[in-house]
Amino acid sequence: MALIDGRILLGAESLEIKPEVVPKLKETEPTIHESEHKLKELEQETEESEAKSKDMESHQKEVEIIGDERPCPQVNPPADNKPAANGQSSTDQTSTDKTKFVEAEGKESIHSLIITAKLALMADSRLFPYDIEIDAKGKDLVLLGKVTSDSEKQTAADIIRCLDGVHAVKNRLKVNPNASHGLVVERDKIITQLIKERFEKSETLQAVKFEVKTEGGVVTLTGSTRFQVIILEAAQAARQVPGVKAVNTSTVRLITAE
């Protein structure tokens, strides 16, 4: 097949093409190229849109975006609700003020979202015993540590997500039914140490040298003395240490003078 003098030769036959048709065929070539170019641009935009959509889905899986599907938990009120001297309730005094405080020098207060979150967790008696670490990535907070139940894990996340300024919470708390055991052991060691320090301040108890052991907040005193009143003094000194639930003195021996 060949084009000669406006004729298309097909074997022995020929097809005549008028001269005015040839320019029109040539004019359609740029239009075809433009259409192909636009088609490639549309395909590229589609691929970029799909990539962005996948990135957003991946981010949503990694971070729990805050929503209002659950109400904010109510922090347990303190045991001793004394009225404020100025007539305001303790609730008004402890409520979070969203305005920035200004010091006497006129400088703005320095605050941190991580510290705010830690204080909020310590204000709840259910979470107070646990050492929960908080990591921040901008306004997204990550909870790290151990609690003893799923409900405590959820409560911690709910408290943090309701704080002003928090965008999202990633809850990495691990549930371990034995998590509180280590905390109790550590607390017992502190109680024992505080009781011994109190005994050291008394010449009488320092001379007797009672042994002190604490398990689950229950203090057991061991030793011997001639005077029962000294046992009472030791028990009362131990009683004043925060966290003590009971004082057992049954293992203290009363001895008689020889």
TrEMBL record:
Top-down, what is the taxonomic lineage of the species of origin?
A: Bacteria, Pseudomonadati, Pseudomonadota, Betaproteobacteria, Nitrosomonadales
* Domain (BON): residue spans on this chain: 109-177, 187-256
Q: Which PANTHER family match?
A: BON DOMAIN-CONTAINING PROTEIN (PTHR34606:SF15)
Locate the region Disordered: 22-103
Q: Which InterPro entries match?
A: BON_dom, Lipoprotein_DolP
Its protein name is: BON domain-containing protein
The highest taxon in the source lineage is Bacteria
Q: Which Pfam families match?
A: BON
Basic and acidic residues bias (residue ranges): 22-71
Matching entries from PROSITE patterns are given as: BON
